[in-house]
Design brief:
The chain is an alpha/beta fold and 482 residues long. It is 31% helix and 23% strand. The chain has 12 helices and 22 strands. Strands 3, 4, 5, 6, 16, 17 and 18 form a 7-stranded mixed β-sheet that branches. The chain has a 5-stranded antiparallel β-sheet with strand order 2-1-22-21-20, sandwiched between helices.
Length: 482
């Protein structure tokens, strides 16, 4: 071997060692793009926990504070929905049995109509109408007795909807209920009629005994804070007042609000809908026990669990997640309580994930909590286990697609390259799911920020997703914990 060849080989080895060390050392911390985004947002690096790991691999690409306990916000829904798909199966459904109790003759039921809830999260307006329509198809036009609602399947302590964040009128603060009707909410649709100078207001459902304004003036103001411009007043449960105006520039808009008196919602919506359908009710709508040891007249089945899980994760629906959380306890343990649901979920996590799950603190299944705690390492392990499970397609397809739909439709990360669940609270911002890189590799990605300024962390999370998409060919495995 000539001296020139020996020199060339030695030079090449030194060069490769230097460049390899540089790449490896870069991955001992966070990617530089992520660090820059954190600096721009004035967020300290220790506010972030993150894991990036190729699907099926034992080594990690990013392993930043993986064992630090943090609040996951709505990333907790990944635990609830993964457990439900595993324990119940994607085709499982809720059943809402209905009894016609008494004599039925000439369209008159001399007795009660009983409806028993089992936690169905999707007993929304259309399906409630179909339930009552089925009653009419059986020949009932007048109920001389009562409509009796059995809500005993769940034991949920009463709470003020505004206790969590002071936003009592936000539908996401609705509490779980064994017979949850239409999320205890009202949807107002605003349709501008420029030639008349007004906006037409339609309210669904029509709640019995509740009046709502049906129009208000149009304005030429910009369509920015259009809800504030309405000057809505919901303080009187029997009156929805709109004292402001609506901008012509807004076009048609919808606004969903939680009803101001959730305790009376079921009574108002059932009586209102029954009367609107031409029915008559001689008695009242009240809570009570369903018939025992008597087969129901008919049952209403929910959509399959896979469809419910999609709604929960795509749109981060808190009350639906809490319904599912309690339903797991009811089906698996016979008790629809938060305590039993927590115990069941902790046991499931430990059985599926091992020791890494023992430090997790499970609260209400939705992530609408200040107490829930997980580690990035545990969440990454959960996603790895989910990826290898038979229900992986249902879980993955339930997650928002970056830049396309759900809670990530406005994301600045590469569009269509990741399915990620989002989580956000006043002091929490996070994402978790699966990213597809430019080389076709798939990576589990978990990133959570806990900090008073967490709402500024979105660019840093987007930067990590983009890094996983475009840089995997240059990444070196990193197992150093920071």
């Amino acid at each position: 071997m000539t001296s020139f060849v020996r020199f060339f080989i030695a030079f090449a080895m030194v060069f490769l060692h230097a460049t390899g060390s540089a790449a490896g050392s870069a991955m001992r911390g966070l990617p530089t793009e992520v660090e820059a985004a954190l600096d721009q947002a004035k967020l300290p690096r220790d506010a972030l926990v993150a894991v990036v790991q190729e699907v099926g691999a034992s080594s990690t690409r990013v392993n930043w504070q993986p064992q630090k306990l943090v609040n996951p916000a709505s990333l907790a829904k990944l635990i609830t929905t993964s457990a439900a798909l595993d324990l119940l199966g994607p085709a499982w459904t809720w059943s809402t049995p209905v009894w016609l109790q008494g004599n039925l003759q000439n369209g008159v039921l001399e007795g009660n109509l009983h409806i028993k809830g089992s936690g169905d999260p999707k007993l929304v307006l259309e399906r409630l109408w179909l339930l009552l329509r089925r009653v009419q198809q059986l020949g009932v036009r007048e109920i001389r007795g009562d409509i009796v609602l059995d809500r005993s399947a769940f034991a949920v302590p009463e709470q003020n909807p505004g206790d969590f964040d002071g936003e009592a009128l936000r539908p996401y603060n609705a509490s779980a209920d064994a017979l949850l009707l239409n999320y205890k909410s009202v949807v107002m649709t605003f349709t501008p009629l420029p030639l008349k100078g007004i906006v037409m207001v339609a309210t669904d459902p029509a709640l019995h005994g509740v009046k709502a304004d049906t129009s208000l003036p149009l304005s030429n103001a910009p369509c920015d804070d259009w809800r504030g411009a309405l000057k809505a007043d919901f303080t009187d449960p029997t009156r929805i007042k709109l004292n402001g105006s609506f901008s012509t520039a807004c076009g048609e808009k919808q606004w969903a609000v939680a009803y101001a008196d959730p305790k009376s919602y079921n009574e108002r919506v059932l009586r209102g809908m029954w009367l609107d359908m031409g029915g008559k009710l001689g008695g009242v709508v009240r809570d009570g026990a369903a018939p025992v040891n008597v087969a129901p007249t008919f049952e209403v089945l929910s959509p399959p669990l896979a469809e419910v899980v999609r709604d929960i994760n795509k749109f981060s629906n808190n009350v639906m997640a809490q319904q599912l959380f309690l339903s797991l306890a009811l089906v698996q343990r016979g008790q629809g309580t938060v305590e039993v649901a927590r115990e069941l979920t902790r046991q499931w996590l430990t059985e599926r994930l091992g020791e890494v799950a023992r430090t997790a603190l499970i609260d209400n299944g939705s992530g609408l909590s200040r107490d829930a705690r997980v580690t990035a390492q545990m969440m990454a392990r959960l996603l790895q286990v989910a990826w290898a499970s038979p229900t992986m397609p249902e879980l993955l397809s339930s997650l928002p697609v970056v830049g396309v739909d759900g809670t990530l439709r406005r994301s600045k990360a590469p569009a269509g390259r990741a399915h990620l669940k989002t989580g956000s609270l006043r002091d929490v911002m996070g994402v978790a799911g699966v990213v597809v890189s430019n080389t076709g590799r798939r990576y589990v990605l978990v990133a959570i920020v806990n900090h008073p300024n967490a709402n500024a962390a979105r660019p840093a999370l987007d930067a990590l997703v983009k890094w996983a998409v475009v840089n995997d060919a240059r990444m070196e495995p990193n197992t150093v914990e920071q």
